[in-house]
Predict the structure.
Amino acid sequence: MGAPNNMEGQESSANFDLENIGPFLGRLSAFIESGFGANEIQKVCRVVDEMEHDEQREVEFPIRHGGADSLLRVVLFMDDVDAPDLYFFSPPDLALQIDEEIDRFFEEVGS
């Protein structure tokens, strides 16, 4: 399998320990006006919990960001059962915010 390709939107990605996925997504939701709240975060976490090693899954959410309707696509790749890769495909301005938040988050959690 491997990393996803040919996805619309700008990519942001990182490898997350399982216990950090929900908290990071909660922080990500603060940048999105609507369409990515508690229910969507729970959905991503459920998908991750159901995945097996080397499995790749994708979830999409119609969102509102920066006053415009858009799409947030999250691709999950379980290359490590304790630390899957998450790829976020989003509008460029949101991708920049995600990248910056990934850096802050890992600095805080020590990863």
